[in-house]
Amino acid sequence: MAEKDRPGDDVPGDDELRADAAAGDDVPDDVADSTTGSGGTALAERSADSEGSPKAKKRRGGPFGRVGGFFREVVSELRKVIWPTRKELLTYTSVVIVFVVVVTAIVSGLDYVFGKGILWALG
Questions:
Q1: Per-residue pLDDT tens digits for 63-110
Q2: How far apart are the first and last CA of the chain?
Q3: How far apart are CA 88 and CA 51, in angstroms?
Q4: Structure pTM?
Q5: Per-residue burial over 75-105, b = 16 or more CB atoms within 10 Å of its CB, e = otherwise
Q6: How far apart are CA 70 and CA 117, in angstroms?
Q7: Which residues of 42-67 are buried (b: 16+ CB within 10 A; e: fewer)?
Q8: Cα–Cα dist 52/96, whole Å
């Protein structure tokens, strides 16, 4: 299924972000020069990114602000979900139903056999 090109597979703009991060274009020259050794660029990117992150913003106080923030995050995560197509949903549903029927038949058969065996041995 990964080879299918479905809506939501490729987030617009993420390729440009990866290319910029790989090239190091978003790091100013003075910051890049001042950091030496391995990981200097990553440290500069991390400190620059942390200023604009949602966690750095001041959160609204009180229980209503926290509940509202929770629901905003839930909606944000649900937008990232890749929902199955109707055909995939029917396929998955039928596979689950067949699996449940087969396992139920196996358990019922074993229950019957062991029940008869116990009645024969003890009864």
A1: 888 999 999 999 999 999 999 999 999 999 999 999 999 999 999 999
A2: 55
A3: 42
A4: 0.42
A5: eeeeeeeeeeeeeeeeeeeeeeeeeeeeeee
A6: 56
A7: eebbeeeeeeeeeeeeeeeeeeeeee
A8: 45
